[in-house]
């Protein structure tokens, strides 16, 4: 009896200890759950705020310049002036007997001067304290991350979607729904493509910087480029007469510049031929063909007047002082003729070519524009393995005289129903319009316009993953006035504390 009694008491004691251990484990697990939930909720609260607020916020030139001079001291003032007293950001919640309090702080990390704008990396820290209702013990968790920001006259390719119209957050949601616009988030992305809207200060109406770069001339003001000066830049005989319609490859003592087109084009076709980029221009019965290979440093320019070869490559800048009635991607046939393709797979821009098309007037996209090297996975394009870029900028302004014209970018009524466009599109005036019926336009890149007309068609925007990493086309148009924008958010470490 003594032995059995002792064994029974030992079992009771062991059961009590086991129950206490299990209770402690359950209590510890609940604390972990509360702390982790607070950290996740704090991160989601912060990313939701970024998507709604952290895009294209106006800042002053003085504040940007002060950031260049003393970034550590100027960064908090820049953020506070543009975004308000957002840091520290505190969130307190409770759910199912658990409670948590999280705090988000952001401090200056490092700065890269990109000339017109600054690229800033900020240190982000979110701390969460989780516990149970009516109990004192708490569990701590912390997240450390990096926040990427741009300040200054930022490249518009950094803004996935912008419409020139003042809208509240609820109006933005209604606008997207009414126009069948979807902003797709890649798997694993913390901050998806954002939609920014304002009355002005973003869309540039002055293409003169890109025109001067393509023509290999000094900077000029809109309207200051006389016919005589333009003829000189194009290599024509001196005269005060207007430049004849045609396609001109800029060449002077500085080497090859860009391409200047005077007059309207019936068709412009972009194609890839082995290691060469091909651009074909058609106007009436006249055809011009530009072919250049960056790897071989070789250029061939065939014109109605003859063919010319160079051991140089041009600037990948095409200026069209008129309209482009049909722009599309194509392929080089066995006979050497370049024709538009509509298969959604044929690359139009060679890997390694950063091509920009600047048009004074309307550009109409009639077929797919695909970048070589873009990888598709689960219906989502990934461009991090390619260096090809494409920018289409309809300035709404004559490239020489500066006179206002209609402008705009349109998708042709005859374009494929599942049109794929991989580019940054900017329509400074004239808006963006999808013509026809039953279309779903898939845009990998960005869209900026003063108005939008979907006409019952759908638009799906996926941000270029290189833009999310802070890499933008070299000749992307810049914002008209200084702005602050968030372009990336990365989680670097997740820490748990007892």
Summarize the structure.
This protein is of the alpha/beta class and about 500 residues long.
What's the topology here?
Layout: H1 2-53, E1 57-58, H2 61-69, H3 71-83, E2 89-95, E3 98-113, E4 117-132, E5 138-152, E6 161-164, H4 169-178, E7 181-184, E8 195-198, H5 208-215, H6 227-234, E9 246-252, E10 255-262, E11 267-273, E12 276-283, E13 286-293, E14 298-303, E15 306-310, E16 317-321, E17 324-332, E18 338-340, E19 354-359, E20 363-365, E21 375-377, E22 380-382, E23 389-394, E24 409-411, E25 420-427, E26 432-434, E27 440-449, E28 452-453, E29 458-462, H7 465-468, E30 483-497
Parallel strand pairs: 6-8, 6-27, 7-29, 10-16, 11-17, 16-19, 17-20, 19-23, 20-24, 23-25, 24-26, 25-27, 26-28, 27-29
Antiparallel strand pairs: 1-30, 2-3, 3-4, 4-5, 5-30, 9-10, 11-12, 12-13, 13-14, 14-15, 17-18, 21-22
Helix pairs in contact: 2-3
Task: Describe, in plain words, how this protein is organized in 3D.
The strands form four sheets. Strands 6, 7, 8, 9, 10, 16, 19, 23, 25, 27 and 29 form an eleven-stranded mixed sheet that branches. The model is unreliable at 17-24 (pLDDT under 50). This protein is elongated. The two termini are 46 Å apart. By secondary structure, it is of the alpha/beta class. It folds into two domains: 24-153 and 482-498, no CATH class; 208-480, no CATH class. The protein has seven helices and 30 strands.
List its traits.
2 domains; 7 helices; eleven-stranded mixed beta sheet; 498 residues
Portion in strands: 35-45%
Considering DSSP H and I runs of 4 or more, what fraction of the residues is helical? 10-25%
Distance between the termini: 46 Å
Mean pLDDT over the full residue set: 89
Number of helices: 7
C-alpha Rg (nearest Å): 29 Å
């Amino acid at each position: 009896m003594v032995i059995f009694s002792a064994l029974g008491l030992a079992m009771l004691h062991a059961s009590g200890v086991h129950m206490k251990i299990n209770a402690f484990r359950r209590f510890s697990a609940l604390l972990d759950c509360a702390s982790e939930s607070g950290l996740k909720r704090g991160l989601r609260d912060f990313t939701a705020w970024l998507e709604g607020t952290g895009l294209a916020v106006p800042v002053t030139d003085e504040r940007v310049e002060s950031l260049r001079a003393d970034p550590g001291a100027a960064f908090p003032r820049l953020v506070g002036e543009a975004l308000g007293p957002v840091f520290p950001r505190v969130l307190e919640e409770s759910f199912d007997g658990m409670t948590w309090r999280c705090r988000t702080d952001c401090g200056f990390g490092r700065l890269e001067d990109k000339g017109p704008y600054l690229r800033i990396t900020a240190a982000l820290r979110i701390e969460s304290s989780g516990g149970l209702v009516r109990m004192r013990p708490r569990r701590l968790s912390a997240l450390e991350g990096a926040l990427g920001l741009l300040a200054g006259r930022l490249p518009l390719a950094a803004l996935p979607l912008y419409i020139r119209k003042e809208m509240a957050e609820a109006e933005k949601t209604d606008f997207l729904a009414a126009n069948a616009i979807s902003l797709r988030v890649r798997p694993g992305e913390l901050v998806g493509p954002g939609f920014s809207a304002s009355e002005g200060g973003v869309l540039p109406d002055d293409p003169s910087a890109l025109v001067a770069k393509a023509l290999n001339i000094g900077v000029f003001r809109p309207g200051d480029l006389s016919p005589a000066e333009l003829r000189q830049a194009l290599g024509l005989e001196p005269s005060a007469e207007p430049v004849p319609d045609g396609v001109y490859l800029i060449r002077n003592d500085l080497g090859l510049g860009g391409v200047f087109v005077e007059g309207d084009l019936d068709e412009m076709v972009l194609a890839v031929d082995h290691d060469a980029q091909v651009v074909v221009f058609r106007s009436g019965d006249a055809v011009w063909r530009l072919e250049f290979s960056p790897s071989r440093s070789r250029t061939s320019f065939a014109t109605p007047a003859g063919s010319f070869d160079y051991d140089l490559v041009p600037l990948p800048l095409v200026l069209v002082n008129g309209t482009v009635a049909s722009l599309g991607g194509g392929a080089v046939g066995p006979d050497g003729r370049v024709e538009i393709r509509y298969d959604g797979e044929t690359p139009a821009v060679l890997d390694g070519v950063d091509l920009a098309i600047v048009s004074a007037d309307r550009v109409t996209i009639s077929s797919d524009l695909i970048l070589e090297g873009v990888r598709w996975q689960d219906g989502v394009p990934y461009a991090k393995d390619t260096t090809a870029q494409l920018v289409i900028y309809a300035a709404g302004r004559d490239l020489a005289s500066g006179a206002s014209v209609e402008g705009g970018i349109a998708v042709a009524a005859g374009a494929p129903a599942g049109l794929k466009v991989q580019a940054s599109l900017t329509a400074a005036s004239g808006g963006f319009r999808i013509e026809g019926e039953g279309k779903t336009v898939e845009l990998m890149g960005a869209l900026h316009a003063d108005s939008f007309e979907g006409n019952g068609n759908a638009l799906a925007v996926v941000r270029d993953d290189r833009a999310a990493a802070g890499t933008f086309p070299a000749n992307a148009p810049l914002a008209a006035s200084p702005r602050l924008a968030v372009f990336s958010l990365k989680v670097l470490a997740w820490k748990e504390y007892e």
